[in-house]
Write a structure and sequence with these properties.
OB fold (Dihydrolipoamide Acetyltransferase, E2P)
């Protein structure tokens, strides 16, 4: 998958909190830091995200996007 953002990190999903429309995905990234991404439940389901998945964290401007590899 190609994307225009230049800032990427490898990450691991540590927790997913599902709401009624949106979900919060917590991630562990290098240097034992944590990040979070808020995304629609449709996006979480489309990526089939689950705890323990390895993802690419793509950061562009104020958005944090996840790419499952």
């Amino acid at each position: 998958m190609k994307y225009g953002a230049r800032n990427t990190l490898a990450g691991k999903v540590t927790e997913i909190k599902r709401g009624t429309v949106m979900g919060q995905v917590k991630l562990q990234v290098p240097a034992k830091s944590a990040m979070e991404s808020v995304m629609t439940l449709d996006s979480i389901d489309a990526l089939k995200l689950k705890k323990g998945d390895r993802v690419r964290v793509v950061v562009k401007a104020i958005s944090v996007l996840l790419v499952k590899e």
